[in-house]
Design brief:
- The protein has 11 helices and 14 strands.
- It is an alpha+beta fold.
- Strands 1, 2, 3, 5, 6, 7, 9 and 10 form an 8-stranded mixed β-sheet that branches. Strands 4-8-12-11 form a 4-stranded antiparallel β-sheet, with no helix packed on it. A two-stranded antiparallel ribbon has the order 13-14.
- Helix 8 packs across helix 11.
- The radius of gyration is 54 Å and the shape is elongated.
Length: 513
């Protein structure tokens, strides 16, 4: 395409001489006309120069745009050609490639494979099934000189499943995995990067369920160590050696949160599995986790503490308030029992005692002791002295009253005289004056009753006074029992919280430190 402008003028050549003569004549004529025009109209001549400059600039801009487009198109075509050439080189390398042999098989050395884990999610730790679920990216890197070519100058990222099948890959597996899934949404999550000098990066995404044997003796104040194992399945250590990446081999997603545990540290270690056919290389990732106490503090500890404290309300209630104190004691006991059953339903049935078992057992014991305390206090409050019961029984009651008068009425003058009487012999026989009968007494027996010694005789004035004193003493005993009952309640108001506080100090120090 020719661009006509005052700056760039095409040179036309012709073999005919008359064209040259015509052109020269035309040019001379045009120049003479321009000179005449300039002399007649100088202003218009200057404008013509300005117009010519603008035309030159527009032509320069158009040429620059064309050159830029041509350069960009050339570079794109070269890039596409380079990529096509790299793929063609890779196809040529795979023609004589044996994927059954390790990269260092011809050297009789073990192929070193560096592994790296990127954990996207970590959770669903179940103490019943003793496992946890992980969504991770497994990255493996090794050097395969068979895929090295001098013309491959840039990395090739390929996710073709056929290519993955065509090259050699480490045959690794997860020994402690219960279940595994490969991600296919929206495409198979696999990547093979072939770097210059034959460096291979193989990455795939997996969803795995790993077994984790937990020690629940301190549940829910426990710390657990769960492992993730990676091992060679078919290649012994003579052919394949696994190792962790030197810099941060295990990485966690920065915004990852676990509902029940807090990750304390991750320890990458190596191991070796020995079988009859040989030794196999393996890697172990240890996850040290501490259980978060917040959930169990709100759902287990605080409710049971409140239940125990509510059971102490009965100590401030009247002793004779039997329905209220009984209802309160039984209700709190049933509540703490049902709470303990609910907690145990979500835990495995282990043969050892857990920390939550100790706590729930102690809370149940405190509530039960509060109920027992009310039972004992109510018994003292309603207890009737034995003397009062026998005093309603006729002659036996009269005999009891006389015995009590003989023993405890020390202010009566006759009893003082009786107390100064000589001590009878071990076996003494007394003849009653009225009936003439004989009464045999021993040192361990009580003095004979007047009803037995004087049957049919009338009650004397001294006997009435003794009965009156007996009734007064019975009332005093009843009053003292009520005082004792109230005192027991008062003591328990401070004793129960003190003992529960000591238990809390011992419990938390033992299981937390």
């Amino acid at each position: 395409m020719w661009l006509w402008s005052p700056l760039v003028r095409p040179q036309l050549t012709s073999s005919s001489s008359w064209r040259k003569t015509t052109t020269t004549t035309t040019t001379t004529t045009n120049s003479q006309k321009e000179n005449r025009h300039r002399h007649r109209h100088p202003r218009r001549a200057v404008d013509g120069v300005v117009v010519d400059d603008n035309r030159r600039r527009m032509c320069f801009g158009g040429l620059e745009a064309l050159v830029l487009l041509w350069t960009l198109a050339t570079s794109l075509s070269l890039g596409e050609c380079g990529k096509v050439n790299n793929l063609a080189l890779l196809d040529s390398l795979l023609k004589d490639y044996d994927r059954r042999a390790t990269p260092t098989n011809h050297l009789n050395n073990a192929t070193n494979v560096m592994c790296e884990l990127y954990i996207r999610s970590f959770g669903s730790i179940d103490p019943n099934s003793m496992d946890y679920q992980v969504d991770l990216y497994l990255r493996q890197a090794w050097v395969d000189e068979r895929l090295n070519h001098i013309d491959i100058e840039q990395p090739l990222d390929l996710n073709d499943p056929n290519l993955v099948k065509a090259i050699w890959k480490p045959e690794v597996y997860f020994p402690n995995a219960k279940h595994a899934e490969f991600q296919f949404v929206t495409v198979p999550n696999v990547l093979v990067r072939i770097n210059p000098l034959g460096e291979i990066l193989y990455m795939l995404r997996l969803k795995l369920v790993f077994a984790c044997m937990m020690e629940l003796s301190k549940f829910p104040l426990d710390s657990q160590v769960c492992t993730m194992e990676i091992a060679s399945f078919s290649k012994t250590m003579k052919e394949l050696k696994l190792s962790w990446k030197s810099d941060a081999p295990i990485k966690m997603y920065k915004n990852m949160r676990m509902p029940q545990f807090e990750m304390e540290k991750i320890v990458p270690t190596t191991c070796q599995e020995s079988f009859q056919i040989g030794n196999y290389s393996c890697l172990v990732a240890e996850f040290h986790m501490r259980r978060a106490i917040g959930f169990h503090l709100v759902q287990s500890y605080l409710p049971t503490i409140l239940i125990v404290v509510i059971s102490w309300v009965s100590f401030w209630m009247d002793v004779d308030s039997v329905p209220g104190r009984t209802t309160l004691g039984v209700t709190t006991l049933l509540t703490v029992s049902s709470k303990s059953s609910g907690i145990q339903a979500g835990l495995p049935q282990v043969s050892y005692v857990k920390a939550i078992d100790v706590w729930m057992g102690a809370c149940t014991a405190f509530v039960f002791c509060a109920l027992l305390e009310f039972t004992f206090v109510n018994y003292l409050w309603r207890r009737r002295p034995q003397m009062e019961l026998r005093s309603r029984g006729g002659s036996n009651g009269t005999c009891l009253a006389e015995r009590y008068t003989h023993i405890s009425s020390y202010n009566h003058p006759q009893q003082q005289k009786a107390s100064t009487a000589p001590i009878p012999s071990p076996t003494e026989v007394k003849i009653t004056p009225a009936g003439g009968g004989a009464v045999v007494t021993t040192p361990g027996s009580a003095p004979p009753c007047s009803s037995e010694m004087h049957k049919g005789s009338n009650t004397s004035p001294g006997h009435d006074e003794a009965s009156h004193m007996t009734a007064q003493f019975v009332r005093a005993i009843k009053q003292s029992n009520k005082i004792k009952a109230r005192q027991i309640d008062e003591y328990c108001r401070g004793l129960f919280p003190l003992l529960f506080g000591f238990f809390n100090i011992f419990y938390w120090c033992y299981y937390m430190l």
